[in-house]
Amino acid sequence: MYASEQSLNGPLHPGDVQVITDLANEFRRTLPSDVTLVCPLSLGNHVDHQLTRLAMEQLGHTILYYADFPYVLRDSSWINKLQNDGWKSQIYPISEEGLLAWQDSICAHGSQISTFWPDQAKMRRVVSHYMLENRGIRLWNRPTS
User: Fold this and answer.
1) Alpha carbon of residue 143 to chain centroid
2) H helix or E strand, kind and range, residue 130
3) What is the mean pLDDT of the chain?
4) Which residues are CB-neighbours of 50 under 8 A, at least 6 positions away?
5) Residues of the chain falling short of pLDDT 50
6) 0.70 exceeded by the pTM?
7) What are phi and psi of 92, to 5 degrees?
8) How big is the chain by its Cα radius of gyration, in Å?
9) What is the DSSP letter of 143?
10) Cα angle, residue 81 at apex, residues 24 and 139 outer, rounded to 5°
11) pLDDT of residue 53
12) Of 38, 55, 75, 102, whose Cβ has the fewest other Cβ atoms within 10 Å?
């Protein structure tokens, strides 16, 4: 359904409605009912992130949202939009071990390296800088009605 790199960062295919339902059902089956979920905001419109967010939002759990990295580096105007729309955020510190795990998880997806950075060393520097600049990772709460 997504035959090009460009199509992976755009609107969902109508056939994905079933994928979202299936994901939500799998989450219901495997996740405890009292957990707080951490979910992508879907910045950059990557279809996997959109599918995950839409499935998680069907569950009725408490959700904290993270800014999709590295898409957040391309456009920071989303911060003002979230704040103007009543979203609140909190910074969560990341340990050195956590930072290394984050970087290693990016390395596990070779296509991410070649898409966003010239090599792993550059990616590790960018991730470290982002984490240090933010003093951790910012997670967002959706405003309550």
Assistant:
1) 18
2) helix 120-134
3) 91
4) 12, 42
5) none
6) yes
7) -115, 125
8) 16
9) P
10) 50
11) 97
12) 75
Query: Nearest 5°: CA angle at 128, between 142 and 77?
Result: 40
**How far is the C-alpha of 140 from the C-alpha of 39, rounded, in Å?**
10
Which tokens belong to 93? 């510190």
Query: What confidence score (pLDDT) does residue 145 get?
Result: 67
User: So where are the chain's domains?
Assistant: 1-66, 90-145
Q: What is the DSSP string of 80-112?
A: HHHHHTT-EEEEE---HHHHHHHHHHHHTSHHH
SS3 118: coil
User: For residue 64, what are its two tokens?
Assistant: 């904290």
Residue 64 pairs in a beta bridge with 38, 141
- CA distances 77 to 23, 44, 57, 80, 116, Å, are 30, 12, 23, 6, 20
For residues 47 and 12, is the Cβ–Cβ distance under 8 A?
yes
DSSP notation for 3-69 = -STGGGBSPPPTTHHHHHHHHHHHHHHHS-TTPEEEEE--TT-BHHHHHHHHHHTTS--EEEEEPPT
| SS3 at position 142 | coil
